Amino acid sequence: MDKTISAADTARDERRLRPLDPTQAPRGRGFLAWMWFAIGPYRSTFYLVTLVMASRHTVAAAIPMFFSYFIALVAAGGLGFGEAMSLAAPYLVVFALFLAGIVVLYPQLTMVDLAMRGLGMYALDRMIAMDTAWHEDKASGAKGQKINKGRESFKILLDSFFWSILAQVGLFVSLGAAVAMLDVPPLFYLLYLLFGLSYFALAVLTLPALRRRFDRFYAAFEELFGNVYDFLSSVTTIKIFTLERPILRRARNVELSGHRTAQHLFRFQGLRWVLLNLLAGLWIVVIFIFALYSATTGTMPLEAFTLILMFTVNAWMRFEWLAYELNAMVEAYAGFSRLTEVLADARDAVEAPDTQTGEIFTPRRGEIALSEVSFAYKNSAEPVVTGLTLSIPAGQKVGLVGPSGAGKSTLLKLLLALYKPDGGRLEVDGRSVADLDLRAFRQGFAVIPQEPAIFNMSLRDNIRFARPEASDAEVEAAARAAHAHEFIDAYPQGYETVAGERGVMLSGGQRQRIAIARAVLRDAPIVILDEATSALDSATERLVQDSLDSLFAGRTVIAIAHRLSTLARFERIVVMDQGRIVEDGPHDALIDKAGLYARLWGLQARTVE
């Protein structure tokens, strides 16, 4: 945040950016319903701006009628300047109000911007709330592109409503008023009506085909964006393996595929544009011929003929502009709809663990019990965990061991309620996790993952994520306990040093020490370690292990480590294989048993030798 912004300005901006209420979200994927939902906090402003903008467009479209009226007065003769001004005064007042109406431009722009940002915040919130399986199935770049393009498309659609749709409404209102007030034959009213109906019929009938092409275009664009994100986030790997040429070839193929999709879209857009303009041109010629005939035969006065010609030219320019605007609106509609499809999935995902609500309960003791728990990934033919029963008393230190694919990491995710079991029961401190509010439940866990997520912000804020209300002193104390203070303090900016995207400024060991500092700051009764010290050198690991021993005191600890020596001093080791628990006991007892654990221990011992 910019530190020059005052507290009063911040509070005012907080009041302006009002959050969207998820309980009011549409249940389907209807485009208009989601538009209406997104502007919900600002509807009073929307009504005011719509009224003023519609009035302004109507007045603007009526200006030709005003000129035509005064041409008729001047042509009739015998009208002095004073009389002419007195007759013009009401129109000038209306015109002055028309000019004054531009003051709504600021609230209109502000409303659109706030609604767009509110939609972006809501989309981010709902995507985060989606279950882990959904996120693992989607590319991060594509998800980000959906939000960005959806926000942009929402703004385009609102701007089009105020500046295009309302303008057309104003045109037809003025045209109707002109026909009623001046001596224009009703035939021309019918011609304009047929003109508008046929034009919009062709435009609407071609919209589904245009939308399908835009859908394919955006799908290709999201694939491209996801690839670019992957490539740029893996630059070091690309350089190490000299993959520049293969990566660029792959990127070129994706670009060419996207271009072919775009060509299909552009050809259809071009054909549609030609047909709409040919239709408009045909109607303009027909109206002109009828107007010319009526004027030359004396059935229509001069001022009406002038009005018809001015409105015809106006209509031609507006319809040509509208044809372009319709393309932009359909493109925006496609981009916005791709976001609302995700939001509708998030609204309907009642099975998603992260949307679960229930009893507000945070574990305090750390007692864990699993009974006949089974789980399979969505696209997996076989379950990853089968009939798993495990009881962990509060304060016990348990190591999880097993070959790759045994289900260890999946078990940890089940404990954190990142996945919902397909069967069985999971309890913490005697409470069924299925009945708990998950946000409150997860407050009882501290997790040190193998690959910590480091955000592009200060190191202080990266640590403080574990407990946002923590003071600077508490953050620094946690960093000292994790032996992170030494390298942080060595930076010129110290704790204010920005970590860079995904922690690019830090080494693997430094990132893990930041994660350990988070766990220390979290001060939770249950600690989960997933290869927590794998990136540390031996000397640092010994120092950090002492800190972890202090952190573990009185807490339930569940740890995965491929380096079995780090688990040998744990009270209990649970050995998994093919989703089942095959051995359970302390290190010495499992060695004496000469089973899977003993074989794994022996393999590592020989490797070290």
TrEMBL record:
Keyword set includes DNA-binding: no
Membrane topology recorded in Swiss-Prot or TrEMBL: Multi-pass membrane protein
Coiled-coil annotated residue ranges, if any: none
UniProt domain ABC transporter: residue ranges: 368-603
TM region(s), chain numbering: 31-52, 59-82, 88-107, 156-181, 187-210, 273-293
UniProt entry keywords in alphabetical sequence: ATP-binding, Membrane, Nucleotide-binding, Transmembrane, Transmembrane helix
MF GO annotations: ABC-type transporter activity; ATP binding; ATP hydrolysis activity; ATPase-coupled lipid transmembrane transporter activity
Keyword Hydrolase: no
Occurrences of domain ABC transmembrane type-1 (ranges): 59-331
InterPro entries, sorted: AAA+_ATPase (IPR003593), ABC1_TM_dom (IPR011527), ABC1_TM_sf (IPR036640), ABC_transporter-like_ATP-bd (IPR003439), ABC_transporter-like_CS (IPR017871), P-loop_NTPase (IPR027417), Type_1_exporter (IPR039421)
Subcellular location per the Swiss-Prot or TrEMBL entry: Cell membrane
A Pfam match: ABC_tran
Domain of life of the organism encoding this protein: Bacteria
Cellular component terms (Gene Ontology): plasma membrane
Name assigned to this protein: ABC transporter related protein
Organism field: Alkalilimnicola ehrlichii
